[in-house]
Specification:
Layout lengths: L1 E5 L10 H15 L3 E7 L7 E4 L2 E6 L9 H21 L6 E5 L4 H11 L3 E5 L3 H4 L9 H14 L2 E4 L2 H11 L6 E3 L15 H8 L5 E6 L8 H15 L2 E6 L5 H10 L6 E5 L3 H8 L1 E2 L2 E2 L3 E4 L8 H8 L4 E4 L4 H4 L8 E3 L4 H13 L1 H14 L5 H21 L1
Parallel strand pairs: 1-2, 1-5, 2-4, 5-6, 6-7, 7-8, 9-10, 9-14, 10-11, 14-15, 15-16
Antiparallel strand pairs: 3-4, 12-13
Helix pairs in contact: 1-15, 2-3, 8-13
Length: about 400
Amino acid sequence: MRILTLSWEYPPIVEGGLARHVRKLSEQLVRDGHEVHVVTRGGGRLDAHEERHGVHVHRVREPEFPKDDLDAFIAWVDHMNEDMLAAGAELGGGFDLVHSHDWLVAAAARQLARKRRVPWLVTVHATEYGRHQGWVNKHPQSYIHGVEKRMTRAADSVITCSEFMREQVTDIYGLPRAKVTAIPNGIDPTDLQPVSDLPRLRAKFAAPDEQLVLLVGRLVYEKGFHLALDALPGLIRRVGKVRFLIAGSGTAEAELKAQAERLNLMEHGTFIGWTGDDVLHSLYRIADLYRIADLCLVPSIYEPFGLVALEAMASGCPTIVADTGGLREVVPRGRKVGLRFRASSVRSLERMAQQLLTDDELRDRLVAEASEHVLRFDWADVARQTTAVYERLVTSRTTA
């Protein structure tokens, strides 16, 4: 099968988990015998075409997008779609379907599919409705919500990364359930390669007798980092020598740092900003007889899937997540592979963190069981499920 994929990010252009998802899925599809072409952006820095691990990557040359001006960003997205449409048109015919990811590339994907008269499949990784807790009545949220609604209704089929997202998408966009398929993200433990000197890395952030609490992700409201900061003073009082480490960047960074200052937390932790995968994966890891991080917190208010939790568990780091969204599917109930705290509850988060940091037996049991649990999230299985959707769409189009 010959597949045309559109994504606004693809390694080494990485804004979040979407880039990793598209890359791993595309590479697995190639291993399974498919031909995959990805149209994406290059930020004006990369060659227009390259082959990466068997995937044909076609990049449109774009300047850096305006991060702090949403109206300018929407205009930038429109221009990017025009460039992607032109780049996709130059690839000619012969494709069996178009597969696009999220609203940012919907305009180009829809036109490319219609011009080629092939099925259009959309993967929804998150929704504007979910990110803003349903507040999508004002611009620019209303604009993005509208694009997502038109996209999912016009597409021939929709994939979501969790059953939670399947329910949300069918509900808020008024789609028939049969049109939406939930296929979870995958993880490849061999990708989680740490730096060579883990003890030295650990020493940068905590002393040997201190426990280190790790938070990873985009610094935006829906990730709930403000809840973790509110819980830390009480956790430090009850447990003792606890430090925190926040890895990530985003629009809420200044606000979170100001919150940490108000809570007198800056002497107890570090904001390291965005970091490369080698350092990030190292933070989850075990170094000699102790871990870099003693606990990974995922306190999201809205979380379509929960890749950070999956990476942490795959790396042997004890994990606590909010009882919400796709995190419920990554960390099932029952205290088997990780702990879940009551979503948005600072008190519940603090209590769970205290329990895990002070109960060695619980911590070791969760880590052992999580190492088996994560094997369920296999990219080969994700690709097989995705291919089944491809085949169903292509067959229905040819027999129509």
